[in-house]
Input
Amino acid sequence: MTEHDYFLAWGIYAIAAVGCLLVWFRLTRWMWRYLREPLRVLALVLLATPTIVDPLKELYAPAIAITALDLLVKAGNNILQAASDLAMYGMFAFGLYLIFVLIRWPIVSASRRRKAEQAAAAERRAAEINEEEEAQERFEAHGERRPAAAPAATGYRVEPRL
Output
């Protein structure tokens, strides 16, 4: 295998791996976030982990492919090296994912708290508007004129009515 063939094979594999990742992202889209994201990290580790095949020529191959071929054909002795590479890269990836989750957690909880406060404020405003409408209906039912509402505190001067 020439160097050109080697790079061509890795290019084809990279395109196929990105396609598989896109399909996996689409398949896991419906899942709960804390199940979906680790499964996506696992798929990325499985598809993107290289392992050395020939130490003299420094040739690498996908670790999942080496593991599968060594298990099926029983021709090579690289299965332990490929499995250890998968485990090592998996630990790194899940460690980075854990750091990402720990950074995201306070941000998401603050966002949820802010949204809950906004929803509560909107409910209070809706209740005030309903109370004003009910008061208006009561005044109109008795044929009376409702007194003018106090102006909102906007900081502007309010002139008295004459």
Observations:
- The mean pLDDT is 88.
- DSSP finds four helices and two strands in the chain.
